[in-house]
Write a structure and sequence with these properties.
single chain; alpha/beta; six-stranded parallel beta sheet; 15% strand; elongated
Amino acid sequence: MTVSITDVARAAGVSASTVSRALRGRQGVSDEVRAQITAVAEQLGYTASRSASSLASGRTYTIGVVVPYVGRWFFGTVLDSAEHVFSAAGYDVLLYNLGSPETRKRFFTRMPVRKRVDALLSLLIPDDEESAALRSLGVPLASTVGGARPGFTVVGIDDRAGTESAVRHLVNLGHRRIGMISGSSGPQHWTTPVARRQAYLDVLAEAGIEHDPALEADGDYTVEGGERAMTELLAASRPPTAVFAQSDEMAMGALRALRRHRLKVPDDVSVVGFDDHELADVIGLTTVAQPVAGQGAEAARLLLRQLDEPGAEAPGHVQMPIRLVLRETTAPPRPRGPQ
């Protein structure tokens, strides 16, 4: 016979509503009671009826996620952590990978998520027209990229503060020829490279270091791009003694280029990244650590909270902590004439 939610409630000694809240990850149930209910449900072989729940609540129990580059580490990590939170609460994920201008335009023209999702997590930065289209869905919206915007809960970090700590570290070590590997904002409207570049320029000015355009190169936020950019910087008439890469993946590419040119890190060139990639500790990379997985999980929790408490005011912007992690890729410049 089919096991009902009432059977689980009776066996666990709780109400059916408590069983429902516990199995869907809702608030108001202690960890001990949730564990007990989960164990009883598994023992009895209970499976919640998605169609019945949807009819009763009017929900689809599906969260939409739009992402520009699902194969890149940052976005993949955010997506994975958010999906774990959604799944534990009984929600499925409907993923849209909008990596090209064509697919992005088609998505915002057709809006295929309409009436198919209860909430939406955006891992891309929508322009004004796209933001209006997302708000027209009438569902909770969250993001982990860009700054605060109307109608969205944005979970992010202070890009300027992170960059300032990285570049100041190089200045304090005595470097004067400090290069930067960045990524362009391009058609995806990224604000991150703009904010980090401005912070880089501000720290140089603060330290009395004249900006040299030849010490900047575009690395496209990839390992391969970072390698190309570092090679370009090394070809300058006066190459840098230190480099700030706006992402760890670009920093890894820079390290590969330096190794190919038989230059030692940090003896010949110091390198600082940004992210604290899962491999950063393995290669000893000095970097600005940000909680990438934590941002995805927090955004997911805030979306679920808005679904559970529709009358509550949603936070507009949540700033996560960052910190400079010192490892083996930075050191004072070797004396070799003017820097």
